[in-house]
Amino acid sequence: MRHPLLLSVCLGGTLLLAACDQDKQTAEEVARSMKDVNVIDESNLNDIMLTVADPNEAVIYFKRAVADNPNRIDLKRGLAKSQVRAKEATASLPNWEAVVASDQATNTDRLDYASALIRAGKWDKAETVLDTIPPTVESFERYRLEAMVADSEKNWKKADSFYSTAVDLTTKPAGILNNWGYSKLSRGDYKGAEKLFAEAVAYDPKLFTAKNNLVLARGAQRNYEIPIVPMNQSERAMLLHTMALTAIKQNDVATGKGLLKESIETHPQHFEAAVRSLNALEEGV
């Protein structure tokens, strides 16, 4: 008579254990799912911090993350990138060193490290790092950096070759054309520089740096006509100011004075820099 009761108790116990096991399994699955969600959320947040977030805020975020997870190379990489974005290239170097010394380092990391070294003015070290990257890595960034290093060594033939290759490897060559033009300008090849700056503006009509450099290249040839490029009134006034200073530097003072006056008249607001230049010129300073 007691067997049915015993059977009921056993069955009840089995069901209870099964329920407990099921609850335990469900809890573990939920924990794993939450962990996966947290990883995804962290990854998304890291991406946001590396792209659209304020650079200084990103530095603070990654510093805290590295402090909590000192062995995470991905976080040190994020910190180094954020420091470069925040114009703290020198501060980023220890973090880049840790990244490239790890077994998780990539050739992209080495390129980013070399770029940070160049920003910090450590040209020799940058060249050493670039030499560690296999020649099979033929990217725009690699040739851009190689060109800059060659420029620093005044190896013009090598620099021109690297700049030319870099231009062919990007669909947005305005920036690299501007850099190449500035290289030509520093060598005294004003006509070559003018051609490259004009190309840069053609690719990116909003790149004011290239417009300004174009004026410098023309002015160095004593061509004081403002180039025909897209510009608003304020930009035209600033370009006239640059051209005026170039003329004055070459002792074409009367021309420079006229350009300064035109610059002041052209600017839609008060152009303090041009006014100061004109006053200094008239006072013989």
Automatic annotation (TrEMBL):
<feature type="repeat" description="TPR">
    <location>
        <begin position="174"/>
        <end position="207"/>
    </location>
</feature>
<dbReference type="InterPro" id="IPR011990">
    <property type="entry name" value="TPR-like_helical_dom_sf"/>
</dbReference>
<protein>
    <submittedName>
        <fullName>Tetratricopeptide repeat protein</fullName>
    </submittedName>
</protein>
<keyword id="KW-0802">TPR repeat</keyword>
<dbReference type="InterPro" id="IPR019734">
    <property type="entry name" value="TPR_rpt"/>
</dbReference>
